Amino acid sequence: MAPQGIWSGTISFSLVAIPVQLVRAVAPGRISFRMLHNTDFSPLVRRMFCPRQGVQVPPEEIVRGFEIAPDRFLPITDEELESLSPERSRTIEISQFIDMAEVDPLYYDHPYYLVPLKGGEKSYRLLAEAMRQTNRAGLARLVLAEREHLVAIRSTEGALSLVTLHYNEELLPAQAIAPGAAKGSAEMKARIKRSIKRMIAEFEPEKYEDSRRTKLLDILKRKAQEQAPVEPPPIAAEEGEGPPDLVAALETIMTDLRKGR
Amino acid sequence: MAGGTIWKGAVHFGETMIPVKLHAAVKEERIQFNLLHRVDLVKLHQQMICAYEKKPVPAESQIKGFEVEEGKFIIIDPEELEQATPASSRVIEVHEFVKLDRIDPIFIERTYNLEPDAVAAGFSEFAEVLQEMEVAGICTWTMRKRSYLGALQGTGKVLRLNTLRHADEVVAVGALGLKEIPLSEREIKIGRDLITQLTEPFQPQKFVNDHEQKLRQLIEKKARGEKVAVLRPKVKKPTAPEELLHVLEASLKKAA
After folding, report:
1. Which CATH number, 2.40.50, 2.40.290, 3.10.50, 1.10.3470, labels domain A5-73+81-170+185-259?
2. Which of B53, B64, B212 lies closest to A35 in CB terms?
3. How many CA atoms lie within 13 A of A196 on its CB side?
4. From first to last of its 261 residues, what are the pLDDT tens digits of chain A?
5. Terminal alpha carbon distance of chain A
């Protein structure tokens, strides 16, 4: 299943322009549960509700807002947000290339992949291959919804990956909590080195399991063997529900808002 | 100024036990938005609606189910969820050490700065050895009922703990469905030259989040009742495959 697109636009470097789509590179590994109604096991869905009118509100009637005074909200539209940086909201302009070794992983925020849109496949491949051969990454700015990010675009196994970076002012220095200048114990260092040498291994992320997930799966498997799963009554097609992709888009917006992303 | 202590634990491997305190390494102060009803600008609340009865369902009538097949669920109750919750412990157990450059940055999720919570327990020695040997300590620990996978990294005397994603949380490049596209030697050569021309050192202090400032100004303007100009975003014309070489050459000339 192709990953969902989060943003689409153009990457550019000098005069080259590549139409692309931004897609997720990571998906949470949590086992996801559905919330069900305890009377008949009907799945529950999240809907937004207006407390003043006492009604459910469909996605097209929802707008983003900023609280300017207690309970007073100012709506901000997508068009207004895009107007803040009109040259950046649809284009990721690579202003320079860098050696990724110069970027401390502390700067890394969130990873994505870029996939080429129709007509951009060749330029995309060229950028990926040239960056791979020169061992460089592109530094650029990206505007995603209400946020502007500094980003690094890297070549990964023939694809372009993008990672948003923290701004300098967002990093908290460790100097304040680092130990003092007192010289360390050479004996302790030697002992630690010996322990480490005995424990050297290859980095194989597949080796490490999330124990909570494993235990949950065991519980679920056991329950599935002991009893039949429950079934809710069939749901008739819903009216005025809105197309499923709008609802899914709304869920994504809400999740991102809650995560502050 | 470092963030406050989030958690306390101890790094353990072999005979070494190093008590530490965790601090956030990143602070994000961003403008927060709410979802509003367009017609009356009232802040919206979230409700769980029963898909069958189409009515809101209160929290006490909600249960969790795992979908085993389409439309069929296994119910899980809070006691069972609790059974799966890892036992709390204050130990950051190191299982092995790996070469730093073998950890693809895509696995790194969040970073904590560590502070020693005891004297003479080997904190700075450990940090220095990690840096000298260019290795990271792969570890697991439980914090606030969640289990974590992480990598301990040393920079000078500073010790850092990065949480790592699990392998199945990372989308593989193969899943993107990218096709192989042939490129000419000349295209690659000009591409490389162009990248080299445009390479500069990484100077993060040059980049300021001016977008946040512009956003605040927009909010203030609208709050005063001023009209805000809506500018159409600029869209660049994509480079057609047959023009690529020509555009690359023109770019190289421009950059030189």
Report:
1. 2.40.290
2. B64
3. 24
4. 455 688 999 999 999 999 999 999 998 777 888 899 999 899 998 889 999 988 889 889 999 999 988 988 999 988 888 888 878 888 999 999 999 889 988 899 999 999 999 999 999 999 999 999 999 999 999 988 778 999 999 999 999 999 999 999 899 888 777 776 666 789 999 999 999 999 999 999 888 888 888 888 899 989 988 888 888 887 765 544 444 444 455 555 555 555 544
5. 24
For residue B55, the tally of other CB atoms under 10 A from its CB is 9
Question: Which residues in chain B are closer than 8 Å to A177, comparing Cβ atoms?
Answer: 2, 21, 23, 113-115
Q: Could you give the CA distance from residue A226 to residue A146 in angstroms, rounded to a whole number?
A: 49
Q: What angle do CA B98, B164, A111 make, to 5 degrees?
A: 115
Amino acid at B56: P
CATH class, domain B5-26+85-168, is mainly beta
Among candidates B39, B73, B207 on the partner chain, residue whose Cβ is nearest the Cβ of A230: B73
> Distance (Å) from the C-alpha of residue B225 to the closest C-alpha of chain A?
10
Alpha-carbon dihedral angle through residues A61, A63, A69, A70, given to the nearest 10 degrees: 50
Distance from CA of B95 to the nearest CA of A (A): 7
Q: Looking at CA atoms only, how far is residue B247 from chain A in angstroms?
A: 6
| CATH 2.40.290.10 domain extents, chain B | 5-26+85-168
Q: Which of B47, B74, B170 sits opposite A49 (nearest CB)?
A: B47
CB A53 within 8 Å of CB B40:
yes
Spans of all domains in chain A: 5-73+81-170+185-259
For residue A129, give the chain B residue with the closest CA.
B188
Measured between beta carbons, which residues in chain B are less than 8 angstroms from residue A126? 183, 187-188, 191, 244, 248
pTM over 0.95: no
Provide the residue count of chain A. Answer: 261
Residue A119, helix vs strand vs coil: coil
Type of residue at B214: K
CA distance B126 to B141: 18
Testing the interface with B: which of A196, A251, A254 to mutate, by most B Cβ within 10 A?
A: A196
Q: What is the DSSP letter of A207?
A: G
| Chosen from B12, B31, B66 to mutate, greatest number of chain A CBs within 10 A | B66
Distance from CA of A243 to the nearest CA of B (A): 15
Give the chain A residue nearest B176 (alpha carbons). Answer: A2
Query: Could you tell me the CA-to-CA distances from A131 to B174, B184, B239 in Å, in that order?
Result: 19, 15, 18
| Predicted complex ipTM | 0.86
Does the beta-carbon distance from B51 to A43 stay under 8 Å?
Answer: yes
- Please, what is the Cα angle at B9 between B87 and B28, to 5 degrees? 100
Chain B residues close to A256, C-beta within 8 Å: none
Backbone angles phi, psi at A113, to 5 degrees: -115, 155
